[in-house]
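Usage

Read records sequentially. Each one opens with the input sequence:
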Amino acid sequence: MTDETRRTAGWFLIILPTVVYGGVSLLSFLIDTESGYLENTLRQDLWRAGHAHAGVLLLLTLSVLPYLERAALSKKWKQFARFSIPSAAIFLPLGFFFSVLKPDATEPNGWIYLAYIGAVILTAGLLTLGVGLVRKGRTHIKQQNTIDQREL
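and closes with the structure output:
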């Protein structure tokens, strides 16, 4: 594992407890009947989605980091994948949370577009990494076939 990947993983492991804190905060809103949280189902749904996306996308980030080492990508494209996937873990939840900050919100405000931006960034990063991994596999197969043919 490269130092850059190791450091990136370390930072995301340090950041992950903030998702736990967010879950505890949501739990406290559910318990505190005066918080106003229970009166707004839209807010409940979007905040629950924000919390879930934050956790899942941080774990996805940690799980794809080792694959970056094996991807047949230039340094620039590896950097893109390395930062686009975790960026989605910021944009998507912020879009969900900030779109209904007011306790009486009846519809999401303009901040919801951050979620769409996050989805596009995530898709681009995953496709980039996927292409890099498929290219690596094809290159390895071609090299192996060349070696096998030389042995004949």
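Summary fields computed downstream for this record:
- The helical segments are 3-15, 17-31, 41-70, 75-98, 113-151.
- Residues 3-151 form one domain.
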